């Protein structure tokens, strides 16, 4: 994995005119804050009432007299919504990876909104769903890796999901073996690494394998944050981070790393497991505690 | 920075921090697990490090016992180990008991903090994990 791009420093805001330092200015500031809070609450309220087409589109009116110049559009009633798992079936961030739980916390997320704003987002959601991966987990990966931008990286790392060439090749082959119908829509060869829709297939497979690895090791219902540890620090490191309390020094959770190796992996002195997890959550929002497998 | 700007920034920070706090729930230690100790796969301290493959775990100590999964990272082993047919009992992160080949294990130790001591613990998220004391 590549180090995440550093947050760009924000320009210092210009000082307002002197007359702004009056009681009126305080009132305006409070009003802006209240408006922002209201907007935030209103958004959350709307988010709890998702519009879904779980049973397919509504019954269509069938005209018995055709209108000249109007194209014929046919919608098959009962067609299942392919993104029903991606548009708000839960996702309140309350999963927490409880041991032995059945079923997942899978649903909409801030990260999913980011990925869906790209030209390839809809295809990526479909690819994740076809491989049994929560689309929000896939979206969180592209947000963390590249901001969902199709960019190059160091070495062979490339694409919106920043996979190495060898990992991409292994994962795309595994995904196609699992679901051969995906072969019809991919960019073949290593060129697919730089096609976000194609790379999303390989990234989904990688997420699925990470979650299955952790489940095989007794970590029930791995969350996006759990699998992020697997992504960043390998299978053994991922398992340790998933089973450590928040105040545990991450250096001890990664007990097989020397201080020099920890520094090379971006671990700062005294950093805890909880601080690392919180930093992940801060970047991907409410996807952090969702299940990877859908 | 003017009072006006500071108030605007404060309002924005309050809104944003409130939104983020609900996305992360810290995990605590509920209780220690006396009679158990931290061990690790010996291979994880080798050249492959954190990419070392997991080890198989079984339903029982006998050679014909069914494999029920694998073990990776910190492994919770009975203390002292009581090997039967070369295998010793462990607790998996989901609380399930299993058996693992004793010769695959080594004492847990931290390469970055040689004084750290590890003990197994039940965590507030329901998983069986560990805590270290430096």
Structural write-up:
The complex is a heterodimer of chains A (294) and B (134). With 294 residues, chain A is mainly α. Chain A has a domain at 91-287: Lysozyme (Orthogonal Bundle). In chain A, 44% of the residues lie in helices and 0% in strands. Chain A is built from 10 helices and no strands. Chain A has helices at 23-47, 110-116, 121-130, 135-146, 165-178, 196-216, 224-242, 250-253, 259-264, 273-284. Mean pLDDT of chain A is 76; it is low at 1-23, 39-64 and 70-104. Chain B has 134 residues and is mostly beta strands. Chain B has a single domain, classed as SH3 type barrels (Roll), CATH 2.30.30.40. Chain B is 14% helix and 37% strand. A 5-stranded antiparallel β-sheet of chain B has the order 7-6-5-2-8, with no helix packed on it. A 3-stranded antiparallel β-sheet of chain B has the order 1-9-10, with no helix packed on it. In chain B, strands 3-4 form a two-stranded antiparallel ribbon. The longest helix of chain B has 19 residues, at 3-21. Chain B is elongated, with a radius of gyration of 21 Å. The model of chain B is unreliable at 17-21 (pLDDT under 50).
């Amino acid at each position: 994995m590549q180090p995440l791009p550093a947050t760009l420093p924000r320009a210092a805001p210009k000082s307002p005119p002197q007359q702004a330092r009056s009681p009126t200015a305080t009132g305006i500031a409070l009003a802006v804050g209240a408006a922002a809070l209201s907007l935030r609450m209103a958004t959350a309220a709307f988010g709890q009432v998702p519009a879904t087409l779980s049973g397919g589109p509504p019954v269509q009116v069938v005209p018995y007299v055709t209108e000249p110049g109007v194209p014929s559009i046919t919608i098959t009633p009962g067609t299942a919504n392919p993104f029903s798992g991606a548009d708000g079936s839960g996702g309140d961030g309350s999963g927490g990876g409880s041991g032995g739980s059945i079923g997942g916390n899978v649903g909409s997320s801030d990260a999913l909104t980011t990925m869906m704003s790209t030209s390839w987002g809809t295809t990526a959601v479909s690819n994740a769903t076809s491989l049994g991966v929560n689309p929000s987990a896939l979206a969180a990966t592209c947000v963390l890796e590249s901001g969902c931008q199709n960019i190059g990286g160091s070495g062979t790392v490339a694409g919106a999901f920043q996979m190495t060439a060898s990992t991409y090749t292994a994962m795309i082959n595994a995904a196609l073996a699992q679901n051969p119908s995906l072969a019809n829509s991919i960019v073949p060869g290593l060129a697919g690494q730089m096609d976000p829709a194609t790379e999303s297939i390989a990234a989904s497979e990688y997420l699925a394998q990470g979650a299955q690895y952790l489940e095989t090791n007794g970590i029930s219902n791995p969350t996006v944050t759990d699998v992020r540890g697997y992504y960043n620090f390998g299978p053994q490191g991922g398992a340790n981070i998933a089973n450590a309390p928040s105040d545990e020094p991450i250096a001890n959770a990664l007990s097989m790393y020397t201080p020099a190796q920890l520094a090379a992996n971006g671990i700062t002195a005294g950093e805890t497991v909880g601080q690392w997890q919180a930093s992940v959550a801060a970047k991907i929002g409410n996807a952090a505690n969702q299940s990877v497998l859908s | 920075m003017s009072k006006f700007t500071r108030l605007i920034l404060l309002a924005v920070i309050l809104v944003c921090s409130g939104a983020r706090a609900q996305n992360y729930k810290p995990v605590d230690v509920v209780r220690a697990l006396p009679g158990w100790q931290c061990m690790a796969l010996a291979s994880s301290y080798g050249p492959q490090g954190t990419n070392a493959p997991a080890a198989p775990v079984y339903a029982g100590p006998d050679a014909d016992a069914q494999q029920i999964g694998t073990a990776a990272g910190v492994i919770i082993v009975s203390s002292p180990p009581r090997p039967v047919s070369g295998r010793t009992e462990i607790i998996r992160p989901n609380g399930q008991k299993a058996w693992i080949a004793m010769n695959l294990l080594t004492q847990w130790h931290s390469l970055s903090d040689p004084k750290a001591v590890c003990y197994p613990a039940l965590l507030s998220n329901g998983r069986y994990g560990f805590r270290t004391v430096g």
